[in-house]
## 1
Amino acid sequence: MMSNANMSPSWWLHLDMNAYFAACEQQYREELRGRPVGIVPVISENTGFIAASYEAKCFGIKTGTRIAEARRLCPDIRIVEARPRLYRETHFAIISAVEKVAPVHEVLSVDEMVIRPWKNESQLSEALRLGQKVQDAIRYDVGEWLSCSVGFGPSPFLAKVASDLQKPRGLSVVSPEDLPNKLYGLKLTDWPGIGKRMEARFHATGVFTSEEMYQLTMPAMRRIFGGIVGERWYRLIHGERVAMPPVKRWQIGHSNVLAPEFRTRNGAWSVACRLLEKAAERLRDDGYHCCRLSVSVEGLSRSRETGEENSWTKRVKFAPTNRTLTLLPTLRSLWQDDIAKPIQVSIALQDIIPDRDVTLSLFDDPSEDRIETTVDSINRKMGRGTVTIAAALCSKDYLDHARIPFGPPHPLPSGRPE
Ligand SMILES: [Mg+2]
């Protein structure tokens, strides 16, 4: 633990509100304080929580847990419908409170921000005091139930990693001297940015722990993930400040030219369901939500003479989601059953945004009711979701195991279509 004062880093602070939506409700509704609380976008047994209070987390309930399952785990759980406007207003109150003691460098989402201390507070001890002041300011100015964890690191990325080390109300440091030993305990998927897909790549090269990841040289990392991504990841975990690349992908799609036995209305529907399931799985693996579903079906042309187009494309926008069970009823609502001999089905999840930006988009939306109305209309059309899943299962073997594979993903157009 050699520390050289001349080489002391300037510290970055990453502030992460603890169980933010649940904490807001506990702040403004006294009867919820100290109780297990789950926040849902709309009251419906099929919905998953978008936040859970720490009291609920003690029962194994977390973001994504379905209401029915949560009731099994904790019969006393209080289910609360989200109030995005309240969270948004509280967010601005939090920023004002923080700015009284430290400059907010970047707001990452409704409950996360990066703080850059002033130069005269660049020593760790001073930065830590600053972190404490930030926590106090939020508690006094906004509310005692609004707690946050603050991470300290030589880069915004490592500060974020640090903020995850201790919750709630943590003040955790990842210093250059701590690298990499202090992070050996992290599972690969504990790292912000490592999803299931990236984890699988590590596994394929025999890397299963953070310690093994740190043993990789930059050339090795470049080999595993391709030049730019691998090099960037190497620099990030070693504490360098690396600018995040803009999100380049805007859709995840699958297309399939139907095998002859699937060139029926039911066959096309079944394939569409399975394509959607696969696309949604990839969306989740890659750490994205989507805000739009596009589906198209092409049939054999009815008339070469008239050139009549025997195909259709439909798309719809909705609140960010990455859940198959939310997307399947949406697909059903778009579906047109009027092509007798379909030959190609295409599905695309569009307007995709990184998971970390999802709460931001919630808070950006001035209409409080957007999520509710979207989910409502989906639920009205939903019926029994299991019927839809069964439809997808019909084509599962065909799409997943038959020799006719998935078509390639949609080629990425140069711009966003409207
Ligand atoms: Mg948080």
## 2
Amino acid sequence: MNMNCKLVTDIAEMYYEKTLSPEARTAIRSHLRGCRNCQAYYRQYAAVRKQHTRQESPVLPESDLTEMEKRAYLHLSEKLRRRRFWNIVGTSAAIGAGSVMLTIGLLLTHKKEN
Ligand SMILES: [Zn+2]
């Protein structure tokens, strides 16, 4: 599977969250090994994600909350975290997401035919 730089940076989020197929992960990893631009991009991306996860992981006053309240709180903080993250990295990734899904679909289809 051939990966170009745009695709790699576009699906960095999925790569980071390990939601990609093993084939796609392997392809990205080998691209990162040979491409300094994407390497730098992904390192920065991962650093931003890590920082946010650390800073904003919710600290819950365990005894005061019911299970339902906890879940609602976690859900809300996750939503806020995502929104803040997109503000930081800009909206280009989000804009590209649609075309990325299409590209991945095409890649997967192409792969099956081989
Ligand atoms: Zn690249």
